[in-house]
Amino acid sequence: MVLTGTYPILNCDEARVFEAEYFAGDEAREWAAMRVAGRAVADGVLRDYAELGEFPSKARVLVLVGKGHNGGDALIAAAELRARFPGIAVDVLLVLGERTLRPLARRSLELGAGGGERGVRRVGMDGRDWESGYDVVLDGVFGFQFRPPLEGAVALVLARVNKFPIRLRAAVDLPSGLDAADAFRADFTYATGSVKSPLLTLTNAGRVRFIDLGFHGKCNQFGYTMLGLGEGVLEGLRGLRAAGCDKRTFGQVLLVAGSRRYAGAALMATLAALRSGAGLVTAAVPESLVPAFVAQVPEAMWLGLPETPDGGLALEGLGLVREAFGRATAVVLGPGLGTERETLALAAEIVAACPRPLVIDADALRPEVVGRGSAARVLTPHAGEWARIAEVVPKGAVVVRKGPITRIETAGAGGGEAGRAGKLLELVKGSSAGSGEREAVYHSFFGGPVLARGGSGDVLAGLIGGLLAQAPEDALGAAARGVVWHGMAADALARARGQVAVRTTELLDFFGPVLRDSRS
Question: Going from the N-terminus, what domains does the chain have, and what CATH number goes with each?
Answer without folding.
Answer: 6-224 (3.40.50.10260), 247-432+440-515 (3.40.1190.20)
